[in-house]
Design goal:
Structural class: alpha+beta
Distance between the termini: 33 Å
Number of helices: 13
Number of strands: 12
Strand content: 15-25%
Strand order of the largest sheet: 4-7-8-6-9-5-3-11-1-12
Helix content: 55-70%
Number of domains: 2
Oligomer: single chain
């Protein structure tokens, strides 16, 4: 500790160089902190979007292939299934020229409340949805996106079926992170019948199992039921189904993490170059210190401490900027609109990430300063003085 003032004064000799090096380290650490939130953030999104007893049954060839609508009654009859509904992608667009802006599905209203009790909708909304043929339940995020409200009538033109349907919004689903729109399957079936189209298929079936311990057995029983049919099924838990959609994103996140590691490695070389330049400028002083009796271990420790202290302070600043930036972003969005961040609230710089970031920054400093400090402390006094004079 008695050499700490000397270390600090040496860092202040070339303030611009020290500040630029510290800034580069801080930016890289802040970037690493933000990117480190992604894996846990994606896992949180999947967990929040998934139920523990909900399962999806779809065509084994993929979700773009349909199933016979008659499968729904057979799934409902499977022991352990407490409720089940069909899902059909409608592909509706407010403005066809803009394309589909939010997910919209035709579903069965009779058991919707039992399959999705976690929507936290009042029973009156489910009753209205079942009562009115053109009723629609819409996620709050979709309402905000389109500037709609409960009671509005909206028209969607399908990009899949040759129909345009007008709906009346009867309920807002408070679930965050989704932009979805649900309406009655019967409404679509009648419209297609009027257009001369026979509608006897479904995209997938969502079921709720009465006991979490029976989920695996129920999925196996459903798939076995249709094993020898023309449309073989695959059943999976909701977390698995949602996770499959994020699989490609997770691969991208892994690539981004690798890039962040490469950036960090580049910062190590930048910091090492800065440490080398600082030491080369003071070779004469180092020789004099040795001549005065300073041990090479002491000189090595002080030189290494310069690089370590600079990186540690810069890294801590970068980690705090990343934490504070995300917290400020969350608070501003939530102040303007509760839950306005949606899925982004899952990305949080945790205490573990902060500690890891500070450790990495200190490691950068030690790694970058080790070789220059070791070389300077080992050089003999006579050799150094001959080079200087």
């Amino acid at each position: 500790m008695k050499y700490l003032p000397l270390v600090i004064r040496n860092l202040g000799r070339n303030k611009i160089r020290s500040l630029l090096t510290g800034f580069a380290i801080a930016i890289s650490i802040a970037l690493v902190c933000i990117l480190r939130t992604m894996p846990a953030g994606l896992d949180n999104i999947i967990a929040r979007a998934s139920g523990t007893t909900r399962i999806s049954t779809h065509n084994e060839a993929g979700i773009v292939y349909s199933l016979p609508y008659a499968y729904l009654a057979k799934v409902r009859a499977v022991p352990g299934v407490s409720a089940a509904i069909s899902w059909n992608w409608f592909g509706g667009a407010v403005d066809v020229t803009k394309g589909v802006e939010f997910a919209n599905f035709a579903v069965d209203p009779d058991q919707l409340a039992q399959v999705y009790p976690d929507w936290n909708l009042p029973q009156s909304a489910f009753d209205d949805f079942a009562k009115y043929r053109n009723a629609a339940l819409v996620n709050q995020a979709t309402l905000d996106q389109q500037k709609w409200k409960v009671g509005d009538e909206v028209t969607l033109t399908s990009t899949v079926f040759p129909v345009s349907l007008t709906f009346k919004i009867v309920g807002a689903i408070p679930q965050q992170g989704n932009t979805t729109f649900y309406f009655q399957r019967e409404y679509l079936a009648q419209a297609l019948q009027d257009a001369g189209v026979n509608f006897d298929t479904t995209g997938m079936i969502w079921s709720r199992v009465d006991d979490p311990g029976r989920v695996g057995a129920v999925m196996a029983q459903i798939d076995e039921l249709f094993h020898n049919s023309d449309a073989v099924t695959t059943s999976e838990t909701e977390s698995s189904f949602v996770g499959n959609f994020f699989s490609s994103i997770k691969q991208i996140v892994a690539i981004i993490q690798i890039v962040a590691g490469v950036v960090t490695l580049c910062i190590v070389f930048i910091a090492a170059n800065t440490a080398s330049m600082s030491i080369r400028e003071r070779v004469g002083e180092i020789a004099i210190l040795k001549a005065m009796g300073f041990r090479k271990q002491t000189i090595f420790a002080t030189l290494l401490a310069e690089a370590g202290l600079l990186a540690l302070v810069a890294g801590a600043a970068g980690a705090l900027v990343a934490w504070g930036g995300l917290e400020l972003l969350h608070s501003k969005f939530n102040a303007a609109q509760p839950g306005g961040m949606g899925a982004l609230t899952s990305f949080v710089v945790s205490g573990t990430i902060l500690v890891q970031a500070i450790f990495v920054s200190f490691f950068i400093g030690i790694l970058s300063g080790w070789i220059p400090a070791l070389g300077a402390s080992r050089r003999s006094v006579a050799q150094t003085l001959r080079e200087v004079f």
